Amino acid sequence: MFINHKILIKFNYIILLISKLYEFFNPFNSNQIRVLIYHHIEKDQFGLFKKQINLIKKNNWKFITPKQLELHFLGKKKLKGKNILLTFDDGFYSNYLVAKNILNKLNIKAIFFVPSDFIKIKKTSKARHFVKKNILDQELPRDFKKIKNMNFNNLKILIKNGHYIGSHSKTHANLGLLSSNRTLKNEVIQSTKDLEKKLKIKIKHFAFTYGNFKSISNKSLRIVRPKYKYIYSSLRGNNFRNFKNENIKREAIYLKEKNSLITIFLSGLVDIKYFFQLIKINKFIKKITT
Asked: The whole model's pTM is what?
């Protein structure tokens, strides 16, 4: 579809106005659960990140914990109002620093989705090679030479501070492009075995790498769905009325762009782009779980 973040940026003020009108008149916007995605955050962007957190709070969004999200989906303790959960993908050390220096001080708990092979790497040169080959294969950040991966000790500290760890495959492979069941199982299941063995926890959350519609194949869902209770994509939307086992929608956030872009995303205006894709995914999930 024609809606993408570049179009939103180009016509920012017009679309921002439309988004505010849409949010005001949308009867389903009174109760929301939206999940944000962040990736590597450069050191000089920490201030921007904190400003975004403050902007979200200012707009009457409440930060929830992964446990609160689980209880809502299980129907044990329903949330009300406008709720936000933070997630970080790919296992960058910068995410650990964001948690240590910002999230912990604000008492915000997040889920960190990590590729298990990336976490295992001990040499920074090998970590950068992994990033260039497997994660940031198109555009490298300005501080690429300083990029590091989190290690298992970092993950243990995150857990100790109330954060959750989720699987993000073994090598950050695009599961939608894999046809071999053996390779898919290795990416999906072995990643969790490695994490659970080292961290001594149960991994219940899984986020598809790339997370767009083409990266979520029926074949991969057949393997992912029985293994994890909570499955995440990068398809935008409100999760408040999610039924059991449904795909959990997430909002990719662009730190370098204007904060008004976050307001547009959180209004729900862009959700329509993913409506029919989500119907297809959830229909297949229902088929393989009933």
From this structure: 0.93
- Segment 218-261, tens digit of pLDDT: 999 999 999 999 999 999 999 999 987 899 999 999 887 777 78
Angle, vertex CA 97, rays to CA 229 and CA 153, nearest 5: 65
Can you tell me which residue has the tokens 């894999």? 178
Q: Nearest-CA neighbor of 32 among 249, 242, 256, 240?
A: 240
pLDDT digits (tens, 9 = 90+) for 2-51: 456 666 656 666 777 777 776 777 767 789 999 999 999 999 999 999 99
DSSP characters for the chain? ----HHHHHHTHHHHHHHHHHHHHH-GGGSSEEEEEEE----GGGHHHHHHHHHHHHHTT-EE--HHHHHHHHTTSS---SEEEEEEEES-BHHHHHHIIIIIHHHT--EEEEE-HHHHH---HHHHHHHIIIII-SS---TTGGG--B--HHHHHHHHHTT-EEEE--SS---GGG---HHHHHIIIIIHHHHHHHHH-S---EEE-SS-SGGG--HHHHHHHHHH-SEEE-S-----TTPPTTPPBP-EE--TTS-THHHHHHHHTGGGGGGHHHHHHHHHHHHHHH-
Whether residue 279 is predicted with pLDDT greater than 90 in this model: the reply is: yes
